[in-house]
Structures
1.
Amino acid sequence: MKRLFNASSPLGIALTVAGVVLALSPEARKSVRQLLVKGTAAILGMADQVKNVTTGAATKATESASSMMENQNLGSENNE
């Protein structure tokens, strides 16, 4: 079975170097932490936007269905 992150592969070397830099450099850790916080905030913001869009669409659909039902009820009352 082939190893995913072989130490002799370019990806393995890059991950090893990144790990060493993060282990030894407080500035690198600080930068990575800031990027992770900003990324998390962006993902949460997008999730809120999706939630608001879907909630708005559900509300509009409910209002539309209610108005259609009212129109049908008014139409059937007028026919009688």
2.
Amino acid sequence: MKIIVDANIVFSAILNTNSKIADLLLNSKGFFDFIAPDYLLTETKKYSRRFPCFQK
């Protein structure tokens, strides 16, 4: 099954790694094919400073 995820879904999983969304994204390899719009990388880079887990 193919599932389309946008930046909001990815950010939600990043902010709450114990959520059902995070669990679905991180633990469903082989069950789902996740598809994301091209702008997902742009959005991730744009807002990465707001997420401590992205800080190096």
